[in-house]
Amino acid sequence: MRITLGLDSTSLSRRYPRLAILATLFMAFGLPLGLYVAALAVFPLNTPERLDAMAEQWLGYDLAGSPYRYIVYTAFLLLVAFIAVNYTAVFGGVSTWVERRVAGRMQSRIGPNRPGAAGFLSWVADAVKMILKEDTIPAEADHLLFRAAPYFSMVGLLLPFVVLPFGEATVVTDMNVGVFYVAAASAFVVVGILVSGWASNSKWALFGGIRGAAQVMSYEIPAGIAMMVPVLMAGTLSMQGIVRAQGGWPWQWFVFQNPAAFVAFFIAVTASLAEGNRTPFDLPEAESELVAGYHAEYSGFRLAIFLMVEWANMWIMAGLAVTLFLGGWQVPGYGAEDYARLLGTGLLPAPGWFGLQLLSMLMFVVKTWALVFVFIWLRWTLPRVRVDQMMSLCWKYLVPGAFLCFVVTLVWQLLVPPAGVAFTGYALTALALFVLAKFAVATRRNISKVAGHRVDLGNW
Amino acid sequence: MAIDMKIERQILRRTETSDEEIVVNFGPQHPSTHGVINFVTQTTGEIIRRSVPEVGYLHRGLEKIGEMVTYPGYMPFTDRIDYVAAMFANEGYALAVERLLGIEAPPRAQYLRAIAGELCRISSHFIAVGTMATDIGAATPLTHGLRERESVNDLIEELCGARLTFNYHRIGGVSFDAPAGWSDKVLRFLDHLDSYIQEWDRLISFNQIYVDRLANVGVITREQAVDYGLVGPNLRGSGVQWDIRRDLSYGAYPDFAFDIPVGTGRFGTVGDCWDRYYVRVQEMLESSKIIRQALAKLPEGEIMAKVARKPKPDAGEAVGRVESARGEMLYYVVSDGSEKAYRLRVRTGSFLAMGIIEELSRGIMVADLIAIIASLDIVAPEIDR
Amino acid sequence: MPSDYIAVTLVILVGTVVALQFWALAKFVGERRPSAAKDIAYEAGSDPVGDPRGRFPVRFYPLAILFVVFDIEAAFLYPWAVDFRELSCAGPLRAGICATGISLLGFGAALAFLVVLLVALVYAWRKGVIGWE
Predict the structure, then answer these.
(1) Residues of B in contact with C55 (CB under 8 A)
(2) By CB neighbour count within 10 A (0-12 exposed, 13-18 middle, 19+ buried), where does A7 fall?
């Protein structure tokens, strides 16, 4: 069967420029904002107790005693899960566009600029194209595993989303073993990689799969140990608990609270780059070596799922680092008591509470996007490491380094008084600001060497 | 040829000693083989036992064509021998036929040839170092290199109207004189280039990961390089200071002072991939020096010697050797006194570089093979012709 | 809380449904023109030689073992890390600060555990498991 849509996004946006801009605005702001508002409206209700109270007050129905209590609760959770999954898909799409635009800028070319304003709708066009593509399965492939592999990856991607806190009240569920759960669940993606590599019956895919398995397995160790540093500092495994133990100002973030955490942050980010198969650790799909690596045989929507997982994984990587080390959703100047005061004791919180919640989500989103930008930026700057270098970096540097951070944090937590911690916070923040300023000055100087004293933002 | 390949593959299959070993075809459709070449590779996991290049996918019989068309008529075909640096392919053929005819291009033409050739070397080396960075996994340098190459292409387009397959040289001279104001544009570009190479070094050459990937990888010793008959930057990367422009000087090159960069083993061993890479980067600066001198001394006068429309050289043979971007490019032309060559033979740098790959590939890793192929700066049509 | 895991199950469910919906969409609108050549595994344009599903070098095996060792170790350390302040203090904590000195049982035992593991790492390192040599 062949379906021709008869119009492509380029000619559409040429013919109806205003429509294109409206569609872009909707997709760029409406969709994410809608998701955020939906999350904000639904997530806080997401406890059986609150649902009970709501049913009691508004419907006069005693849900708590009803046998349907968990069905209603499950239905609400389904809505929550739906929002989370949609967010993942939208983020995966948008970040491909951002990545391509940033790459274009870095490579002194334009990047996608046709569908929608500034080419924003190109990710939608990509998705449509992927679905329209033929879905081929090699004859010699293990059909069942070949089909199943993308779902493994998809599930591996979605599992950490369950505990990733987007805001003070916006988290699907705040597990008491959050960090541990993330460490376990994020390894699921590698099952997809390994299975797809094995099932494809292609040598490139096999190489990619094995490399992916070795890489993700190895880097799980330093990531896990580095992630233990914030656990030590907060004394809890709950993601929300870890964020609550930090503050809004940079010197209250864990990353600046002790020198070992500062190092652990970089170890964790490096390890998560490797776990997410991002450059310089893109060995499982190394284009110049393995053509496309583990997804060499995939096409159509299955490839789309793999790619979506890959890009949406950036959000997990960045979001985790932000949550554990960079203060998460904490808004500077607002503490736990402000949230409690605005929440009040009534059924529905004051409007100010919703405002504060949105602000906290904004904090998280801004920090996470900043880190995602760094990942993108690294990808288009660095070459790829070799397999043995990848291994020795992990086992000879990161694992001992992470252990050292762990031990230093132990000692630090036991011996250094709060005043010392506060001083370290200020000192390390100042150091980071100094490094950033130096970096900005150097960048400015490099740009002006090439482009004169003018930063050209024309092609955005 | 085709039968030989099958045999090669069967040999590879038969020599499999352990069942952990697999045979992988790197190519012909592979992103980093730089064209349609197949590297039949025996590997145990990531470790390669050996890799045998299988060439000939792009064979178009260009040498045979040379025996079927007139001497001037073959000039556009030479472009297709090495389309990344077509100027040298033109020049080598022009030199060979000129020697056959016993004529020499006028001085101005020889200077223009040198200028065009060195511009072409810059553009070809930008492709070489850029694709090398891409093969190592850094995508950005190639696009920056292509941007600079565009400037060169613009300059050459102004000179001869073509951007890729130039067909600029003629037997006995060149087809077009430099347009008015061209030399100023060239100088402006060279000023930019000299500072840009520093930026390039900051961008990629001294990147720690890049250096780690290339240093001590694919080391070709001095003796190996000579034994395998490597030419050009691949030979110079191993520390052998041999350059046709200086040692068997031709055209206007005796008039210019320039250095011949060689591999120094700055980060590893002399003759490793990084050395071969950096020789190319430095050669761009040397080319810039040569062009500056040539523009300063550019003589006035004719750009074409007196040549018949369909020259009929006396029976005999002649050799034209030029230093192409990929090393020595040799044309051997035999005339039987007619208006077509009796025999034409082309010897190219990339083909010679293919020979050493099997030797280098023993016991290295898959990623190193890619680095080695990239560092030899292979252009597939130049191998197969 | 069991409700946490209801959420996990539901997310898996919704994720699979979304993925399946892609599949259904692709099935409905996607093009489908199978051919024998298309079904050959990709090997850079050549016909594949031999079976890729042979045995893979043993190098990965010690690595996997190493992973199991260290991952289990991390799993053991997590619960300890949560309560380490209470465990490593000789007396009760006062406002999160240990005034009574460090208890060797809580703190030292974990350190000894780490040291044993580091010995394992050094052993593996010396044996050349790491780094593909």
Answers:
(1) 19-20
(2) exposed
Residue type, C103: S
CA–CA gap between residue B122 and residue B292 (Å, rounded): 13
**Other C-beta atoms within 10 Å of A77: how many?**
23
Per DSSP, the three-state class of B361 is coil
| Peptide linkage before C52 cis (omega within 30 of 0) | no
Chains linked to B by 3 or more Cβ pairs within 8 Å: A, C
For residue A304, list chain C residues with Cβ-Cβ distance below 8 A. Answer: 22
The answer to whether the CB of A413 falls within 8 A of the CB of A264 is: no
pLDDT tens by residue, A427-453: 888 998 999 999 888 888 877 776 665
Q: Residues 6 or more apart from A376 whose CB is under 8 A from it?
A: A95, A98, A99, A102, A103, A314
The H or E element spanning position B224 is: helix B222-227
Q: What structural domains and CATH numbers belong to chain B? A: 5-54 (no CATH), 62-384 (1.10.645.10)
How far is Cα of residue A277 from the mean position of the Cα atoms in its chain? 13
Reference A174, options B287, C105, C3, C132; nearest CA is: C3
What's the pTM?
0.84
Query: Is residue B256 within 8 Å of B203, Cβ to Cβ?
Result: no
Q: How, if at all, do strands B38-44 and B21-26 pair?
A: antiparallel
pLDDT for the residue B176 = 87
Residue B361: name the closest of B25, B39, B4 by CA. B39
Nearest by CB to residue B46, choosing from A109, A280, A387, is A387
Tens of pLDDT, residue by residue over A35-85, are 777 776 666 666 666 777 777 777 777 766 677 777 777 777 777 777 777
Token pair listed for C28: 């409905």
